[in-house]
Amino acid sequence: MEGLNLREKTPEPEKKEQGLGAKINAALGGGHAAETEEDHLDKAIDFVQEHILKKGDQSHESFVEQMKDDQIASFVRKQYKERTGHEFPLKEAKKEEKDN
């Protein structure tokens, strides 16, 4: 399997979100846009859910699924700090603060 890179995904055609539900989901922080803002821990959680737990494609999660992933990441960071006394080595992705 020469030249096969398992980490690179082939570019998929961009899907337009349609409907009121998709617009609400995107406004709350779900969908493809939220996936691009994930840190490495969130991506690792998605990997485990998709490939080990067989929960399906994690590249277009709803707002509720994003919130569950955030809770899992917070739990992992908290447990790591309690056990080691150090911060988790992967920095949490910072959301842009709006100064309006």
List the helices and strands and how they pair.
Elements: H1 19-28, H2 32-36, H3 40-52, H4 63-84
Helix pairs in contact: 3-4
Please explain how this structure is put together.
- The chain has a domain at 29-84.
- The chain is built from four helices and no strands.
- Helix content is 50%, strand content 0%.
- It is elongated and about 45 Å long.
- The N and C termini lie far apart (53 Å).
- Mean pLDDT is 75; it is low at 96-100.
- The protein has 100 residues and is mainly α.
- The chain has helices at 19-28, 32-36, 40-52, 63-84.
Entry summary:
By secondary structure, this protein is mostly helical.
Name the features:
100 residues; 50% helix
> Helical percent range?
40-55%
Please give the count of helices: 4
Query: What is the helix/strand order?
Result: HHHH
Mean pLDDT: 75
Over the alpha carbons, how many angstroms does the gyration radius reach?
16 Å
Poorly predicted runs are 96-100
